[in-house]
Amino acid sequence: MQSNAQLEYDYSVVKLFTFTTILFGIIGMLVGVILAFQLAFPELSNLAGEYGTFSRLRPIHTNGVAFGFTLSGIFATWYYVGQRVLKMSLKESKFLMTVAKLHFWLYFITILLAVVTLTLGITTSKEYAELEWPLDLLIVVWWVLWGVSMFGMIGMRRERTIYVSVWYYMSSFLAVAMLFLFNNMEVPTMFWANGAPSSAMHSISMYAGTNDALVQWWYGHNAVAFVFTTPIIAMIYYFLPKESGQNVFSYKLSVLAFWGLMFVYLWAGGHHLLYSTVPDWMQTMGSTMSVVLILPSWGSAINMLLTMKGEWGQLQTSPLIKFMIMASTFYMLSTIEGPIQAIKSVNAIAHFTDWIPGHVHDGTLGWVGFMVMAALFHMAPRIFKRELYSKKLMETQFWLQTVGIVLYFTSMWIAGITQGMMWRAYDEYGSLLYSFIDTVTVLHPYYTLRGIGGLFYLIGFLMFAYNIFRTATSGRVLDKEPANASPMAS
Amino acid sequence: MDQETLMTIAGYGKFFLLLFIFIMFYGYAFSIYRRQRSGERDYEKYSELVLNDSLDAVPLEKRDNSKEK
User: Fold this and answer.
1) Which residues of B touch A (CB under 8 A)?
2) In this model, does residue A4 exceed pLDDT 70?
3) Which of B14, B53, B64, B66 to mutate to test the interface with A (most CBs of A within 10 A)?
4) Can you give the residue ranges of every domain in chain B?
5) Is residue A206 within 8 Å of A187, Cβ to Cβ?
6) What is the rounded average pLDDT of the residues A39-64?
7) pLDDT-derived band of residue B62, with 50, 70 and 90 as boundaries?
């Protein structure tokens, strides 16, 4: 290994992934807002023929924000945090640098192809696993490349101890690899069509019926665990202590919460299949494990809040700390809400209602979105060597987006519970009191409110993109790297 | 083997698996706190890995690369 006297960290790959985080964030969130307004005003579904219908756009939204925006954010922060806590630079290894760049370009091509194929209606129809088999193979290639770069960097580290954030990134890599391979076991039909016409892109799942549902939700819920949770915890365990200059409240708690989360999360997926045709014991296990999940989740979240002990004044002065503390708070909210919804009797009302997307979005908008943006805000002065362009813009963005999230989840709580109660209501003869369209009419104002909440969040995201763009191009040049609090122009 | 026997074995298997993991987890938690208290290992110092992360900073616990194959 070279002497590190003249060495510095290499942020070229971080910059590339920062760019895609913003690009796919805008695409995914814009489509999300369109979908929200389509639900409130269905005539909006007819604006672009088959390409503008809800069913065609929905997977573009989910794939765009989960595998475009969030994964880009995860990769950008990995290449930043990984180098720093391991004390190694990508500049020290041509091989790892090539792997990292190849990782980026193959990833970028895959997500662009995902947008194109989904727009054309090419889909496996499995939720959150819609991409067809050629793209799945491409994903395997760059996921392995990420693993090579990750374990390569760990192998070259100067620090003996691997910081807890890196554990979380590693868990994300290993778990997603396993989940992805099993859920996407599919047979391309053209090889086995016996001469019958078949599209080269078409495939069918190797599982059928109940088995397919079980594998799908084991995958689906753990995609939440290992894309929306563990790597985001990895981020907060690095960026909050670093930005605030505080030690983590309890490192021991971070390690215990890690192992707790690893064991419990993988069993919780069954709660997506309550009251369906899967074995009863599996439903009970999904329910129970979901409730137990509160412990490790709150272990991490409380650890983060207590990290600010004695330094709460920073919450007033730094919008960046605000983003992270709000993210941690939303993490607590969604990890208490999820287990409540997974209790069988509550699920009897909540299942299939709008309360579910409400729950998902206070996690994704509040926890994932805020944390990814905070991480990018923290990295920007270090990777571009410039001061953040505007603190005022950050403050405005924070409040606009917070109001947006509150509008989103409160409207969906009311809509969901109203819907659930109306579907179940019956008269003294046992006949249902309402038809489906009655519920749709009642829900219209809440759907409109949700659309407005989403629009607020999207506008905030555009402000974020502008702020980062101006930071990179016209922020005041810094003569040395800031140690903790990120410098920002008023 | 009939289905009932199979279900019974699976039930006991699951119970003992959970018990085993429960003991492992709390044993690990106990060992961390014991090692911290006895001074054998200071876990809390690892927060410094974040606060002291520039490339020219002295590693908290230097990894001896020369000993590795």
Assistant:
1) 21, 25, 28-29, 32-33, 36, 43-51, 53-57, 59-63, 65
2) no
3) B53
4) 13-53
5) yes
6) 94
7) confident
**Given a cut of 90, is residue A108 above it in pLDDT?**
yes
Distance CA A413, CA A334 (A): 12
Burial of A406 from C-beta contacts in 10 A (0-12 / 13-18 / 19+): middle
Would you say residue A3 has pLDDT above 80? Answer: no
Task: Give the burial class of A172: count Cβ atoms within 10 A of its Cβ; 0-12 exposed, 13-18 middle, 19 or more buried.
Answer: buried
Contact A240, A77 (CB under 8 A): no
- When pLDDT is averaged across residues A256-265 and rounded to a whole number, the result is 93
**Backbone region of residue A420 per phi and psi (left: phi > 0; alpha: psi in -120 to 50; beta: other values):** alpha
Residue A161 and residue B61: Cβ atoms within 8 Å? yes
Return the SS3 of B62.
strand
Query: Nearest CA of chain A to the CA of B64: how many Å?
Result: 8
Helix (H) or strand (E) holding A212: helix A209-227
* Residues in a beta bridge with A426: A432
State the Cα–Cα distance between residues A440 and A436, nearest whole angstrom. 7
Residue in A7, A159, A263 nearest the CB of B21: A263
Q: Could you give all domains of chain A from N- to C-terminal order, each with its CATH number?
A: 12-188+207-474 (1.20.210.10)
Q: Do A260 and B54 touch (CB under 8 A)?
A: no
Q: Which residues contact A363 (CB under 8 A, 6 or more apart)?
A: A224, A228, A330, A331, A334, A335, A338
Residues A173-191 pLDDT 10s: 999 999 999 999 999 988 8
Question: Distance (Å, rounded) from C-alpha B62 to C-alpha A381?
Answer: 29
Task: Give the residue on B whose Cα is nearest the Cα of A160.
Answer: B63
Identify the residue among A89, A237, A252 best suited for mutation to test binding to B, counting B beta carbons within 10 A and taking the highest. Answer: A252
For B62, phi then psi, to 5°, come to -65, 140
- Distance between CA atoms of A210 and A27, rounded to whole angstroms? 34
Structure tokens at B61: 């616990």
Q: Both tokens of residue A13?
A: 């790959």
Q: Residue A296 in contact with residue A261, Cβ under 8 Å?
A: yes
Residue A323 to chain B, least CA–CA distance (Å)? 19
Q: Tokens 């365990």, residue? A: A237
Work out the average pLDDT over A96-109.
98
Residue the block writes with tokens 């109203």: A418
Of B33, B50, B60, the CB nearest to A242: B50
pTM: 0.94
Per CB-CB distance under 8 Å, the chain B contacts of A237 are 50
Mean pLDDT of A376-387: 97
Q: Which residues on A lie below 8 Å from B63 (Cβ)?
A: 157-160
